[in-house]
Each structure stands twice: as structure tokens, then as C-alpha cells.
Design a protein that fits this description.
The chain is built from four helices and five strands, in the order H-E-H-H-H-E-E-E-E. The chain is an alpha+beta fold.
């Protein structure tokens, strides 16, 4: 009986120690979880703060571009003159003259290579205007003349200067002097008139003097 009693007492002691160990382990695990939550809280708060700041920045209205004035320079636009551009422009404008697509026939007629037609140049000048003045700009008049040919492998750089700005009700009429120069000389010169929505002061509300 004494031996049986001793074994029972020993079993109870072992069980108590096991229960105590489990309780201690549970308390330690709980403490670690609480600590992890405490550590993550500041990071979560910082993330929420960053999102709020970003949302506030997005909600702020964009800065109003300065209206153009006579003498303002438009940002330049560089256009690589590739054989594909020359041929595609000629086809798109239904200009099938061989000097715009057949190098051998162009050479027979005294040209060193094919060259860009005036309709393609006209389209590129129009693109330059809408790049500078935005999608709401409307081309009203394009008056250009050609000079040095645009041959494959060259680059044409378009530049413009605002010559005149006139109010027309809710619109503003802007006249720009345009020059397109390549490695040989001035390929195109002329003037372009566009109308754009007028700003609060009655002048065109567009961006000039920066990147296109």
C-alpha cells in the first residue's frame, strides 16, 4: 500500500509540473503575440498616415499653367527621320510619287535618296501644336513652306515661338511661328494658328516653355 501510494503521489506531482509548464508556455506565447501586435501597430499607423497624405496630395488641384504671351518659346520636338516614316507618310497621304518610296528612281531623278513629302511635314507640324497646346486645341490655319529635304537617317527638330494671342469669346486664338530644322538646314518654316479654351483672364490657358 505504501508503494502504491508513493507512485500515485509521484504521478500527481508529475502532472502538476506538466500543467505548470503548459501554463507558463501559454503565458509566454501570449506575451510574445501581444508584443508582436504592439510592434506592428506603429508600422500600420505609419502606413495609414502615408495613405492619407497621398490621398490629400491627389485631392489638391493641379497648378494652373501660365497663359502664353507673345515671345514665349514652345518646347522643342525632335523627330527621327526614318525610311519607314517617309514611306508611310506618303502612302497615308496618297502621294505615290516614286521619290517618296523608291530610292533607285529617286536617284535617277537627281536625289541622293527618297525624301519626305509636304503632306507628312504638314501633319508633323500639326502634331507639334497639339503636343504643346493639348488635346483641346483646334488647328485653324497652317501655312508652311519647305526648304532642305528630310532624308532618311536625319533628325528634324521643331521649335516654335508665340507671335500673337487674341481672345475670341470663350476661346483664345494663338498664332505660332514654327521652324523645323535638320542636319542640312531649315526643312520647314511657317505659321500655325490654333484655338484653345481661354483661361479666367480671357487668355489661352496652356503650357509653354517646358517639356512637350
Amino acid at each position: 500500500m505504501n508503494t502504491e501510494s508513493a507512485r500515485s503521489e509521484s504521478a500527481r506531482s508529475e502532472s502538476a509540473r506538466s500543467e505548470s509548464a503548459r501554463s507558463e508556455s501559454a503565458r509566454s506565447e501570449s506575451a510574445r503575440s501581444e508584443s508582436a501586435r504592439s510592434e506592428s501597430a506603429p508600422a500600420s499607423a505609419r502606413s495609414a498616415s502615408a495613405r492619407s497624405a497621398s490621398a490629400a496630395a491627389s485631392a489638391r488641384p493641379a497648378a494652373t499653367p501660365a497663359p502664353p504671351r507673345p515671345g514665349d518659346a514652345l518646347p522643342p520636338l525632335e523627330i527621327p527621320i526614318t525610311r519607314t516614316l517617309i514611306v508611310a507618310g506618303a502612302i497615308a497621304s496618297r502621294d505615290y510619287q516614286d521619290v517618296h518610296h523608291d530610292a533607285e528612281l529617286a536617284e535617277e531623278k537627281g536625289s541622293p535618296d527618297i525624301f519626305m513629302n509636304i503632306l507628312t511635314t504638314n501633319g508633323l507640324v500639326g502634331r507639334y501644336m497639339t503636343d504643346c497646346f493639348g488635346p483641346e486645341a483646334t488647328l485653324r490655319k497652317v501655312a508652311i513652306r519647305l526648304g532642305a529635304p528630310n532624308y532618311p537617317g536625319d533628325t528634324m527638330t521643331l521649335t516654335g515661338t508665340v507671335e500673337r494671342v487674341e481672345a475670341e469669346g470663350e476661346l483664345a486664338s494663338v498664332t505660332v511661328g514654327v521652324v523645323g530644322a535638320n542636319g542640312i538646314g531649315k526643312h520647314v518654316t511657317g505659321t500655325v494658328t490654333v484655338t484653345v479654351p481661354a483661361g479666367p483672364s480671357g487668355t489661352a490657358d496652356v503650357r509653354v516653355g517646358g517639356d512637350a
